Amino acid sequence: MRHYEDEGLIVPGRFSNGFRDYCQSTIDRVHVIRTLLESGLPVRLIKELLPRLTGGADAGTDAGCAEFLHEVQSYRDRLAARIAVLSDQQAALDTYLREARRTDL
């Protein structure tokens, strides 16, 4: 959680003794952040995306929205290309294993 705070992804409240107060909305935001990170989206894009997902003051109103969407689409396209390469590699390994099993019989 401190890492997310250091990255500017969350801003927890503070108790009078200085301890962090992770309210439910902060915890919910962390779940969204983790999901986006697990999808491979870089922190830089997550920082831009979060206000749009949570309906922040600048949600969908900034002039760079089209550029941001282009970046996310570009990232998604690169991810799809990587998946295609991995799928081809998996298919090649499957073929190799099938052939290897036939020759072992």
Structure report:
The protein has helices at about 1-5, 25-40, 45-55, 65-105, and strands spanning about 15, 20. It is mainly alpha-helical and about 100 residues long. It folds into 2 domains: about 1-60, Multidrug-efflux Transporter Regulator, Chain: A, Domain 2, CATH 1.10.1660; about 65-105. It has a two-stranded antiparallel sheet with strand order 1-2. Helix 2 (about 25-40) crosses helix 3. The protein is elongated, with a radius of gyration of 21 Å. The mean pLDDT is about 85.
In short:
The chain contains four helices and two strands; from the N terminus they run αββααα. With 105 residues, the protein is mainly α.
| Helix residue percentage | 55-70%
Spatial strand sequence of the major β-sheet: 1-2
Mean pLDDT: 85
Shape: elongated
The CATH architecture of the largest domain would be Orthogonal Bundle
Radius of gyration: 21 Å
Order of helices and strands: HEEHHH
The total count of helices amounts to 4
The major pleated sheet works out as: 2 strands, antiparallel
Which strand-content bin applies to the residues? under 5%
Provide the CATH topology of the largest domain. Answer: Multidrug-efflux Transporter Regulator, Chain: A, Domain 2
Integer count of domains: 2
